[in-house]
């Protein structure tokens, strides 16, 4: 129990990253319900990039190679999707 209450800066970064990462599914679900079909809103990609970035920082701090390899490629994928959406809009 004491370890659970002993949060340092990087545990908070990891928790915020996880919240951002989870929010992407909530915004996707709400957007899909409103549209009556499956859609992926721009905010999905923003939450994905933000969450993945913070989780990668946390994984590097923890020196967890599995977690690092799981998050690092996502930054490229999410950034590319954001770029393509912005490019299409302009």
From TrEMBL:
User: Where exactly are the transmembrane stretches of this chain?
Assistant: 6-27, 39-61
Species this chain originates from: Fusobacterium ulcerans 12-1B
InterPro entries recorded: Lipid_A_biosynth_N, UCP028440_lipidA_biosyn
* Domain Lipid A biosynthesis N-terminal: residue ranges: 13-84
Keywords, sorted A to Z: Membrane, Transmembrane, Transmembrane helix
UniProt name for this protein: Lipid A biosynthesis N-terminal domain-containing protein
Q: Which GO-annotated molecular functions does the record name? A: lipid-A-disaccharide synthase activity
Q: Is this entry keyworded Transmembrane?
A: yes
